[in-house]
Amino acid sequence: MALFGAALLTGCQQAQQSLSIGDMASAFNREIWVMSIWAIALSVIIFIGVSFALFYTVQKFREDKHDAPPAQFHGNNKLEVWLVAVPVVIVIFLSVLTVRSMAILNPTPDQATKIDVLAKQFWWNFTYPETTADAGGKVANGNELLMPTRQPVALTVTSGDVIHGFWAPNIGGQRAAMPAVQKTWQVDTDRAGVYQGNCSQLCGASHANMRYKVVALEQERYNTVLAAMKAYRAPEPAAGSAEARGLQLFLQGKPETGAASCAGCHRVQGTSAAGQVGPDLSFFGTRRTLGAGMWESEKAQEMLIPWLKHAPRVKPGALMPTYDGSEYMSKGKMLKGGTLTDAEISDIAAYLRSLKLPEEADYWRDVPVIGAASTGGTQ
């Protein structure tokens, strides 16, 4: 059943990256596996015992072997006691194992790396509450979770709208992300790599497209990347460049055509853009995914212009406004989007691609993609 479930989860991934609840690189999964062995073993014993009793009884008391009417009796007190006592003992035993595992897994040690997870339709934001950026505000990244290996990571999960489900099976169990509720628990992995994560709670039209990547790095490299994120300031584009024009549109929009500014919804570290409605775009140029993991690598680059022009068309239910002048649905209302020319949209794309961490802090470089369908799978 575990293998079958893993196969089903694999089939859900556009990039053919498999998920595994049996990934023993995670101490969380190892603990759950130990508890599961007992549950599976007891289930097998019960199945064999019940099947034996059934077939034995049917065979022994076959009609063709007994012509006389069966004896009438009220019941069997001894049998009834056993039928009650055995399940009670099994349930108590499994309950003790469950409480033990919960006592091990639920508390988060003080030295755990703390990461806040915000889920919204249909994207994720990951904030590092213990790391304040030199440019102001907490270091954050949209749709790509960066974590260290070989130590517990305390994830505090919440939602900004409806109930979502945070689940990256390779690093630990899943938790519901609920509005106005914060849940903290620990995940971990001993192996550096890129892992797949999904929303596991039906949350709307693009539930299946609400994905994210977990990039686990060795502690030293993780520290290097986090330090670079802390010191990062968005680059100042050269005057007259496509990036400079894109920055102006990003911050101010184009009021005369009704095109809203990107800064009203998104934050870029080191600029006046401090929006909280959408995912943090501070390191957009370093990221390898687009649309909350809907597209990856080369496909993400290819889809950036269509995404900026008309996000709801390429991702059903996306709440980002359109910039080709067409109408779009937002929270049950039909709205008319603003208008930007193809050249202006290309300028915004050029600016977004310029938002890169230093080369030494490229957290995707030479990191194996765990469960990738192709051989070698590194980013």
Would you spell out the secondary-structure blueprint of this structure?
Layout: H1 2-11, H2 27-60, H3 77-105, E1 113-120, E2 123-132, E3 138-142, E4 144-148, E5 153-159, E6 164-167, E7 175-177, E8 183-187, E9 193-199, E10 211-217, H4 219-231, H5 242-252, E11 289-290, E12 295-296, H6 297-309, H7 311-314, E13 327-330, E14 333-336, H8 342-353
Parallel strand pairs: 1-5, 4-10
Antiparallel strand pairs: 1-2, 2-3, 5-8, 6-7, 6-9, 9-10, 11-12, 13-14
Helix pairs in contact: 2-3, 5-8, 6-8
Number of strands: 14
CATH architecture of the largest domain: Sandwich
The shape is elongated
How big a fraction of the residues is strand? 15-25%
Residues in helix, % = 25-40%
Structural class by SSE content: alpha+beta
Parts with pLDDT < 50 across at least 5 consecutive residues: 6-15, 374-379
How large is the count of helical segments?
8
What can you see in these coordinates?
The chain is α+β, with helices and mostly antiparallel strands. It has three domains: 2-65 and 72-105, Helix Hairpins, CATH 1.10.287; 113-231, Sandwich (Immunoglobulin-like), CATH 2.60.40.420; 242-356, Cytochrome c-like domain (Cytochrome Bc1 Complex, Chain D, domain 2), CATH 1.10.760. 33% of the residues lie in helices and 19% in strands. The chain is built from eight helices and 14 strands. The chain has helices spanning 2-11, 27-60, 77-105, 219-231, 242-252, 297-309, 311-314, 342-353, and strands at 113-120, 123-132, 138-142, 144-148, 153-159, 164-167, 175-177, 183-187, 193-199, 211-217, 289-290, 295-296, 327-330, 333-336. Strands 3-2-1-5-8 form a five-stranded mixed sheet, with helices on one face. Strand 11 (289-290) and strand 12 (295-296) form a beta hairpin. Helix 5 (242-252) packs across helix 8. The chain starts with a helix and ends in a 26-residue tail after the last helix.
